[in-house]
Amino acid sequence: MSHWDETYDALAGCYDAMTQDVNYPAWADFLEKLFARQPSPVHTVLDLACGTGTMSFLLARRGYEMIGVDFSPEMLAVAAEKTLEDVGEPPIFLCQAMEDLDLYGTVDACVCLLDSVNHVTRADKLQKAFQRVRLFLEPGGLFVFDVHTPAHLQGLDGGIFLDETEDAYCVWRTDYDSRRKICTYGMDVFHRQGGLWRREEEVHEERAYTPEELTAYLTRAGFVDIRQYGDRKLRPPREGEERLFFTARKPAESWK
């Protein structure tokens, strides 16, 4: 199963509640530090694989013009129900696969967060996705994404985890295939319906990409100034960190 065959019928409705432990403001703070290092100001931002749009709305509140893109209509339906209470323009949401990205114009920066890159389990699709991102960046534009490290995904093998809210309960099991470099998440999601619980099943996959592989894909796509950072830290990655951040720029002198 590839990432784009996955559905989020079961998870979409409870995704925000299940991810309340994600410190989105801290992620946004880190993104703004990276934006501040750019030679030119960042005004328009693409939130690629935006899910339910939490980061899209957060950055919109901070004054950025946001476009959110996700392949899941279920997740985007949740995003569409949200409203922007503070000052700012509401994000525009588009339902597209990452490798088929097609915008109306260019953006100053693209962010792809919460290990969404790992969910693209075919290297050829990830390569094409990077090429599409470069195409729709302004010359000199910034691309930011994070990934789970191979060691982290390998370490999940055989794990059993659970998340619960008042109205939902999710049990997920992980299996790592060292030959395919794929970590499979088998999920049982229970939703409360009155006095009963409805059970749904979903399967998701993440591929372990080495930093060297990702750097090669970015280089082939035409990116320059490729850098790696620790987990939301403005320093190189350290041994044992479970998440890495990458930044790359579209060349300032670019006709494509």
Structure summary:
By secondary structure, this protein is of the alpha/beta class. The protein is 24% helix and 33% strand. The strands form 2 sheets. Strands 3-2-1-4-5-11-10 form a 7-stranded mixed sheet, with helices on both faces. A 4-stranded antiparallel sheet has the order 6-7-8-9.
Estimated helix fraction? 10-25%
Gross morphology: globular
Number of strands: 11
Q: Please, what is the average pLDDT?
A: 89
Task: Please describe what this structure looks like.
The chain is an alpha/beta fold. The chain has helices spanning 15-18, 24-36, 54-61, 73-80, 123-135, 150-155, 211-220, and strands spanning 44-48, 65-70, 92-95, 107-112, 137-148, 160-164, 168-177, 182-193, 196-207, 224-229, 243-249. The strands form 2 sheets. The protein has a 7-stranded mixed β-sheet with strand order 3-2-1-4-5-11-10, with helices on both faces. Strands 6-7-8-9 form a 4-stranded antiparallel β-sheet. A hairpin with a 3-residue loop joins strand 6 and strand 7 (168-177). The longest helix has 13 residues, at 24-36. The chain starts with 14 loop residues before the first helix and ends in a 7-residue tail after the last strand. The model is unreliable at 1-5 (pLDDT under 50).
